[in-house]
Amino acid sequence: MSQPALNPPPVLPGDVLLHMGDGEISKLIAWASNSLYSHSALVLDAETVIEAAGSGVRTTALAQRLANSKEFSLIDSYRFGGAKGGLITAQLSALQTQAKSFLGDAYPLDELFELGVVCALRSKLDWPEPLKWLLRIALDHVVHTDPTKMVCSEFIYRSYAEAPTNPAGALRPTIEVVEAPQRPFPDISWLGLLKEYEEARHAAPRLPPAPTAAPALRSLATQTVVAPDIAAQAEHIRQRRSATTANTLATVQIVDPWPNPATVTPQDFADSPSFGKAARLLPSI
C-alpha cells in the first residue's frame, strides 16, 4: 500500500520570506509598492536566513527570525515552483553559491527615496494598462543599478536570476505587472522616521566586505536573457483590457520582460508565477 503524501514543510531552503516590518520606513515601503510586505529574505539552509539589510548583506538565525514579533508583524514563506514545489539539489546549490557571493555588499540606504518615488509612480498612477506597462519599463531605465549595493528584493531577485545554473538563467523569476488595490497613506511618525533612518545610516557594518567573486557570479551581463516577444505582450494587453469577468482578468497578466533588479519589490515575488505561498510563519506557524 502506498503511503499518503506528506504535507510540504512550511519552510525549506530556497524559500523567500516576505515580511511586514513595524517601523516607519517599512510602512512607506509597503505603501509605495501597494504591498502587504516591506522586506524580503532568503532561507539559505535549515538554520540560516540571508538578506540585504541596512548593514549590508548578512546572515541571521532562521529560528530567531521566525520568533521576531518585535520587529515584524507578518512573515510568509513563498516557494519557487509553487507551494508543493521546491528546488532540486543542483538548483539549491547554485542559489546558495550566488547568495553567499553577495555577503558584505552594501545597502543603498541613501537611494531609498529615489527607489520609493519610482515604485510609487508606477503603482499609484491610474493609467490604462498599456501605458502602465510602458511606464514601469521606462522608470526601470531611470534607476541606476549598482552591482555592489542592493536592497532586499534586489538581492533575492539577483540571487535567483544570476545563480550559476545550466542552462544559465533557469531560476530567473518571472515578474508580472499586476493590478493591486490602492493602499491608503499610512499614519507615519515623522520624527520616528528620521530617527530610524539616521540610526540605520550610522550603523556599523556587521560584516567586512566580501572578496570580489568571479565575474560569472557578479554580473547580470553574463546571464542569457531571452528577448521578449513584443507581439505576445501586446496581445496580453489587449486580452486584459477586453476581459469582462474577474476570473478572466485573473488569468491574463502582463510580464515585465526587462525588470530592473533595483526596482523589484517584495510584492513582485508574491505576484510572480514563479513562486507560490507555502505558509504563514508569523504571527504563528
Quick rundown:
The protein is an alpha+beta fold. The protein has helices at 24-32, 62-66, 89-101, 112-124, 129-142, 152-161, 190-201, 215-218, 230-242, 246-251, 266-271; strands at 16-21, 39-45, 48-53, 56-61, 72-80, 176-177, 254-255, 275-282. It has a single domain, classed as Alpha-Beta Complex (endopeptidase fold (from Nostoc punctiforme)), CATH 3.90.1720.
CATH architecture: Alpha-Beta Complex
Q: Please report the total strand number as a whole number.
A: 8
Please write the string of helix (H) and strand (E) elements: EHEEEHEHHHHEHHHHEHE
Report the total helices.
11
User: In CATH's first tier, which class applies?
Assistant: Alpha Beta
Per the principal axes of the C-alpha atoms, what is the gross shape? globular
CATH topology: endopeptidase fold (from Nostoc punctiforme)
End-to-end Cα distance = 31 Å
β-sheet strand percentage: 15-25%
Question: What's the structural blueprint in terms of helices and strands?
Answer:
Elements: E1 16-21, H1 24-32, E2 39-45, E3 48-53, E4 56-61, H2 62-66, E5 72-80, H3 89-101, H4 112-124, H5 129-142, H6 152-161, E6 176-177, H7 190-201, H8 215-218, H9 230-242, H10 246-251, E7 254-255, H11 266-271, E8 275-282
Antiparallel strand pairs: 1-2, 1-5, 2-3, 3-4, 5-8, 6-7
Helix pairs in contact: 1-4, 3-6
